[in-house]
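Structural prep section.
Before we set up the soaks we want a predicted structure of the protein with FO1 in place, mainly to decide which crystallisation condition to try first. Input record follows.
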Amino acid sequence: MAINVVALAGGVGGAKLALGLMHALGPDAGRLTVIVNVGDDFEHYGFYVCTDLDTVMYTLAGIADPLKGWGLPDDTGHTLDMLRQYGETIWFYLGDRDLATHILRTMRHRAGARLTDITADLCGRLGIKSRVLPVTDARVSTLVDTVEMGTLGFQEYFVRERWAPTVTRLRYKGAESARLTPEVEAALDRADLIVFCPSNPVLSIDPVLAVGDMRARLAASRARRAAVSPIVQGMALKGPAAKLMAEMGIEVTPVGVAAHYDGLLDGFVLDVQDAAHAPRIRELGLDPLVTDTVMKTDEDKRRLAEEILMWSDGKNKDL
Ligand code: FO1
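Run finished without errors. Recording the tokens verbatim:
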């Protein structure tokens, strides 16, 4: 039976599972909607840069840099070289080919187009069959309060400071007044399965949950809802998730992640290496799916996605 799937995603980790879901759905790839974080978006040299949207878009189009997971492979930095020649300090890499995306997005946004429509157009031109939606068309900015450097913008914290400062609080500026788009609302209403990708819970998923009535809609959804742990063996698969969770007082285990999403899930996917945590996941009232969650190859991504699709269908409930 064909089902409608929604994936909530941030950047690289989320994009990997989104790709697995797209492949697993095969001819039904059009039934996948990826709802993407916009808290990392910022304006840089006048360009409207949406890193998570681009990472998901490039990944689903099969053109993302396979090593970094973001940007385009073998991109050149001539524009940045010239900026350096002008004496600019370059701390954020914008490749020459990647700039094309920022140029088109910025141009169309200045002309009044919605981020949703711009993204749909870019994805269409790249031949992506699934839908990629920003969670909102409003501007939401993740702000990072730190001990050492005061408040930093997300990319200043993440890229310029290489997530070294100690975080005391995260704020998602603009999220409360932002509204979900009608496209996001419709996708949630139609969904049979909602997957929280293994993205950073506090940096990537929380800013999605903070928009409008997202939490209430997820809590009330009739869909099967599962999250995939980005924490394996007490470590983040990528990036600062473990460091940040510790700094914010969240237990750095799959149980900590599952508890963080309190009231929003039916199931929780944790790695075989963390199988010992399954009973505590059950104690939270969640159905644990213990499997290989480390996605190295496209086959890994597809297999994990297939297992989640089967779980949602009740076929491997007791795993
Ligand atoms: N990440 C880095 O660590 N350094 C960069 O210079 C950088 C540039 C960049 C440009 C475009 C883009 O789409 C992503 C980029 N990223 C870079 C990744 C990005 O900062 C993070 O992946 C996400 O925002 C976190 O999910």
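Observations: Residues 10-12, 40, 51-52, 54-55, 70-71, 92-94, 98, 155, 158-159, 204 surround FO1 (CB under 6 Å).
Flagged for discussion at group meeting.
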